[in-house]
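so the lab meeting is tmrw and i was supposed to have these ready like two days ago... anyway. pasting both below. for each one the top line is the aa sequence and the line under it is the structure tokens. i havent really looked at them closely yet so no promises
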Amino acid sequence: MQGNDGDDGEGRYRVDIPAELVETIRKARHVVVLTGAGTSAESGVPTFREAQTGLWAQYDPQELATPQAFQRNPRLVWEWYAWRRSLVARAQPNPGHAALVELEQRVPQFTLITQNVDGLHQRAGSQRVIELHGNIARTKRFDDHVVVEKWKETGEVPPRCPTTGSLLRPDVVWFGEMLPEPALRAAMDAATTCDLFLSVGTSGVVQPAASLPLIAQQAGATLVVINLDVTPHVSPRACHLCGPSGVVLPSLVQAAWPVEEKGDA
């Protein structure tokens, strides 16, 4: 089962959805979707490893996103994430996000797992989202990782927890930190129980998220990889749809439920 997709030479993508995949989607009882940075990049959110701009061009993101970096210079790390938060605030969900909302409404059971921290899926309307790497809009205590919603602005950067005095940090997973156990467990459970797994806009190299598509496939699910660049290590038995998620996902949903069937789910 292989899609016939690609650039038409003028920057436009054509998407030919295999009939077998259309039938698989329509019959699916539990669909799981894993999204990565490529999905957000189409909304204008720069991927984590892309070159920084302006003041931040001199910094390596991988040297800022660690507990050790925060301990060395908490103000620098806090301000860098404040800048990234401002980029996310200006971004809007794209057609790929919207297509996943519709897909969730069309199938009996749907689980969305994301490596992104921008909350764009929730802003688009997705209801059940497992955030593997946290959410940049949330803040937690550095000492014990308890989420803090309100604090007193004293001018100190970063601010402190009003209860314990702990410095506050973004509620995201940094290099060297473990993924939140409840989120990882829920993602693993979904991967082993679904009958269709879509891997969308992810490099497929960051563990443990990279293992989820293969876990699903080994459990008997149909695996579909949607990406601009399909990584070579992905199972050859997967269905590969090459193109932007904002083009491929709406085409996929439209192929399974044509316009005239809207409202007849």
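ok protien two:
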Amino acid sequence: MNAVWFTWENQRRNRELSKALGVKLFEFKEIDDMKNPVRKYSRGLLRTGRALLREKPPLVFCQNPSLVLSSFLVTIKKLQGFRVCVDAHNVGLFPKEGRSRMLGGLAGYVQRKADLTLVTNEHLQRHVEQNGGRAFVLQDRIPDIRRKPPVGLKGRYNVLFICSYADDEPYQMVFDAAEKLDAGIHIYVTGNYRKRNLDPSHVPPNVTLMGYISEDLYVDMLNSVDATIDLTSRENCLVCGAYETVAVEKPQILSDTRALRDYFNRGAVYTPHTVEGIRRSVVSLIENRPFLEKEAIELKRQRQAEWELKKNALQAILSEMVQ
């Protein structure tokens, strides 16, 4: 496909979708690490603008967030003569959790001006269409995560809590639930805990705060644990860790939301965001682990086949857009 894909952060969905669609990916991930907003956005726009002038593509994909990136592209598209397909995450559709009228207005502008917006479920599709945009539902592709022999871990049962310490993640409830679990159940936690000023010595002994880990170590952990946990309070969010868990055919604990139940409808235990609910979910998963593992394998095959059909339908739409 004669197109380019821009993202200003390191996110698996960009890599998987651009690869599957045959689109050249420009991943300017250093932009996300910059703290000074003036330097950050000027650097991002400069690198993006240079790539556009060099590539001269008829079709441009971008991730939203960033709202700055996506609004820039939909604003200049007519002048530059290209179409724009925005891959919209929940944060891009509802910036600041919907609390900012100004950013919400900018998000609506991007939805109206984009030629197509990719979303992960029908609820988000309706939201885009109500804002005057055109949307296509495409969940994440089940990623290609290499299978490796497990590494030795501390517990009799080991669980990976995939966490970024964001506002929508009830991480403290997971820590409190771990304290009530059998000592042989060990929970490893990814993510930069320092941004929440957490002290690793102040969590239960069966919890290990790993901090930010490399991709290689993350793959090692996915292959080594018995199950994962990935939680969000956002009702219409399909968490990345759930796709990654399916990729390695492991059972998982997810938040009890309609969106997660619908798409990850096998191989999972769905938990309320309470300490006791999370504790019971871990116990239930361990008790039913063989059955859930079998379901995870079945779900992987089903979602892979469905995704290929959706990809083909999307490619047909994109081809019509650039004719």
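from a quick look at the 2nd one: The chain has a mean pLDDT of 96. The domain at 4-138 is CATH 3.40.50.2000 (Rossmann fold). will dig more after coffe
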